[in-house]
Every structure is written in structure tokens, then in C-alpha cells.
Write a structure and sequence with these properties.
single chain; 409 residues; alpha/beta; Rossmann fold; Alpha-Beta Plaits; 3 domains; six-stranded mixed beta sheet; four-stranded parallel beta sheet; 16 helices; 44% helix; 18% strand; allosteric enzyme; threonine deaminase activity; pyridoxal phosphate; TrpB-like_PALP_sf
Length: 409
């Protein structure tokens, strides 16, 4: 579904991005560019992290939202603005509207994480929970705009939004003038398109690589078809880039200026988020970690210096826990084993003792005594263990077998 108008299909120029940069002075932070020795070793070239996760509202979305709303006519401002979002765009619109003195209404899915709902309200928006999925929420916001005259603020499909996001590219060139590759997550395409407009005009030699989650990758088939193509039922933990169809405006720019769009798996996203937390000490949401996932999955494919854009850090604590566990499992740092033992006093203590000798940390124990599958004197135990990696997993399994236990799974 596209919401572009004839006006919104105008091109975005470097002058637009420069104008947006001036407009955002004192509003958006010039976020840090941090070097990563660990990633540099993995990639074999200098790697820097552009920390938009530390931007106001926790993502780059404030940039585009502010530029879009600041450009409204007085009568449009008086009518207020409306947006639909599960999180980052909602907060960007809410804060931008408050700073500009514009009334904002934000529609969010009923299942949106509570911290994102609370933050959007605290930034000054009226929040309405409607729809189970973003498409339903988007339809409700569009209906509200039609009924009230409020201006709909699209998350990516408007040149003012793209110009605002493009200021990230100007900052990268200023902070790392020797950059050779910029890697950026892609959902609807607003951020990638804006960075491409800013960078390619000034440094056409810089390679720009977009990254999508494999389960929500609408750009590869769209680029192949030469037009935006919808992906049915996109599935990924990276809700910030979970978009079923490219925007018309960013699609044209991405197709012309972005050198490559690649995909990453859920395991690679989890491992990247974990690395950002452990090695860079940065809280990054899965969408924001997608460029790091691409670097980890294809370490020799990027000419350095490389800048990876960490687009956001608004991650629900419940999702963070799940993703971190998933990331540790993907790295072989979790081991789940199921085994049977004789049901007698001290049997479980003996098993835990064997695991202690093997230096495995027990996270969870499930002990089943009554089950038709078990013999009269048998018990079944399922253990979730924290290990030090794949080699340690093998050592733990070996230690259990040497101690006389039959590992079933």
C-alpha cells in the first residue's frame, strides 16, 4: 500500500539535505562515531559505529519527523498531525510536534511494547491503540487524517523525511572523511535513501550497502522487478525494518544510488545485538544491529574504513532478554540437554556436581518423575546450561557421558 502524493514524489537533492541539517541544529544531536577494534579485527578493516541509538528519542527518526513537520504551512500545523507506528517513528513525531507546538495524535498497535507507548505519551502525543498489526494501525491513522484534516506524517515515503534522515550521511562524511563503505539497515528505505543522496553527490566513490532482515526483505525482489513489490506477512524480530513494501520515493533513490541490498538472518541479528552490548557497550535494537550482522556474516565483503549505522536503541526489555538468549544460543553459548537418570535420593545433586566439574552454569532444570514413557525407577531431566562456546558444549556432553549419563537430546 502506498501513500505517496504527486507532491511527495519530487526528487530529494543534496541542497534539501543541507537545508534539513541547518534546520536540525540544536534539535537533533550530532551522534558519536565510535571505533570498534573487535569488529575491525573481524572485518579486516577499520570499522566505526554511527550511534543513532543515542539520538534523542533513541533513533534517527526525530530528524525526518522534525523536518517534515517544520515544513508544514501554518494552516496545516493548526490542523495537527497524525502518525502510525509501533515505536521509533511514533516517538520522533511526538517530540518533533511538541518542540514545534503542533498537536499530534499517534496510532499504535494494541500489542506495542508498553515502554514505547509510555515514551510516546511522555513526548506529548495523544496515543490511540488500534489494530493488531501495523497495517491496521496505519489504516486507522489514514482514516483519522481524512476525517479531521490532520496531516499524515509518513514514516519514510516523503522527501522531507528523506532529507532529514540524510543528515546522518553529512555527519558521517564530516566525522570520517576517509570512509569507503557505509552499511545501513533498510525497512521502507528512508534512511538509506537520505544517506545515499547526501553521500553520493559529495563522495561518489563511497559504497553504500543496505541491509534487510531475510524474513522481511522487500527490496531485493522490488529492485529485480523495477518497481515496489509487497512481501506478504513479513516476519522478523527487527520491527524497525519490518516493512512489507518499499516506499515509492525512497525506492527510486535506493535503486539509483545504493550499491547493494543484502539480507541477514535472525541468528545473525541476535549475534550482532549481543556483540554490540558485550563489546561496544551499546544498547541497540535488532534493526539497529542489522549493519553489524552484515559485517559479521560477510567479513571480507566490505572495503574499509567502514561505517555501520546503528539506527536505534529502543528495544523492549522482554524482547531484549529473548534476543540475547537467542544470540548466545547462536554462538554456541547455550546448551540444552535431556537425559534420564535413576530416581533415587541424591541423583540430581550428583548430576549437578558433574556439570560443576565441567564448568557449565546451570540456568534452568526441569525434573520429571511421572510420565508413561519412564520406567518405575527412572526420572527425566532437561537442563539449560550457559557455556563458553561450541567447544565447551562438546566438552560438557563428553563429561556427562563419561560420568555414565545417557544424553538423549
Amino acid at each position: 500500500m502506498s501513500y505517496s502524493t504527486a507532491e511527495s514524489l519530487r526528487t530529494v537533492t543534496l541542497d534539501d539535505v543541507r537545508g534539513a541539517w541547518k534546520m536540525l541544529s540544536g534539535v537533533a544531536r550530532t551522534t558519536a562515531l565510535e571505533g570498534s577494534r573487535h569488529l575491525s579485527r573481524r572485518v579486516g578493516a577499520p570499522v566505526h559505529l554511527k550511534c543513532e541509538n543515542l539520538q534523542r528519542t533513541g533513533s534517527f527518526k526525530l530528524r525526518g519527523a522534525y523536518v517534515r513537520i517544520a515544513g508544514l504551512l501554518p494552516e496545516e500545523r493548526a490542523a495537527g498531525v497524525v502518525a502510525a507506528s509501533a515505536g521509533n517513528h511514533a516517538q520522533g513525531v511526538a517530540l518533533a510536534s511538541s518542540l514545534l507546538g503542533v498537536r499530534s495524535t499517534v496510532f499504535m498497535p494494541k500489542g506495542a511494547p508498553l515502554p514505547k507507548i509510555s515514551a510516546t505519551r511522555e513526548y506529548g502525543a495523544e496515543v490511540r491503540l488500534q489494530g493488531q498489526v501495523v497495517d491496521e494501525t496505519l489504516a486507522a491513522a489514514m482514516e483519522y487524517a481524512h476525517e479531521t484534516g490532520a496531516v499524515f506524517i509518513h514514516p519514510f515515503d516523503h522527501p522531507d523525511i528523506i532529507a532529514g534522515q540524510g543528515t546522518v550521511g553529512l555527519e558521517i562524511l564530516e566525522q570520517c572523511p576517509e570512509v569507503r563503505t557505509i552499511v545501513v539497515g533498510v525497512g521502507g528505505g528512508g534512511l538509506a535513501a537520505g544517506i545515499a543522496v547526501a553521500v553520493k553527490e559529495l563522495r561518489p566513490d563511497v559504497r553504500i550497502v543496505g541491509v534487510q532482515a531475510a524474513g522481511a526483505a522487500a527490496y531485493p525482489p522490488s529492485l529485480a522487478a523495477g518497481r515496489p513489490v509487497s512481501v506478504r506477512n513479513p516476519v522478523t524480530m527487527a520491527d524497525g525494518i519490518k516493512v512489507g513494501r518499499p516506499g515509492d520515493v525512497p525506492f527510486g533513490i535506493v535503486g539509483e544510488l545504493v550499491d547493494e541490498v543484502c539480507t541477514v538472518t535472525e541468528d545473525e541479528l541476535s549475534a550482532a545485538l549481543l556483540l554490540c552490548l558485550e563489546r561496544a557497550k551499546l544498547v541497540v535494537e535488532p534493526a539497529g544491529a542489522s549493519p553489524v550482522a552484515a559485517l559479521l556474516s560477510r567479513p571480507g565483503a566490505f572495503e574499509g574504513p567502514v561505517v555501520a549505522v546503528l539506527s536505534g536503541g529502543n528495544v523492549d526489555p522482554v524482547l531484549m532478554e529473548r534476543v540475547l538468549r537467542h544470540g548466545m544460543a547462536a554462538q554456541g553459548r547455550y546448551l540444552a540437554v535431556r537425559l534420564r537418570l535413576t530416581d533415587r535420593p541424591g541423583a540430581l545433586a550428583s548430576l549437578l556436581g558433574a556439570l560443576s566439574v565441567a564448568d557449565a552454569n546451570v540456568l534452568d532444570v526441569s525434573h520429571v518423575r511421572t510420565d508413561p514413557r519412564l520406567g518405575l525407577t527412572e526420572a527425566e531431566v532437561e537442563l539449560h546450561l550457559e557455556t563458553k562456546g561450541p567447544e565447551h558444549c562438546a566438552e560438557v556432553n563428553r563429561a556427562l557421558r563419561e560420568a555414565g549419563y545417557t544424553v538423549m537430546d
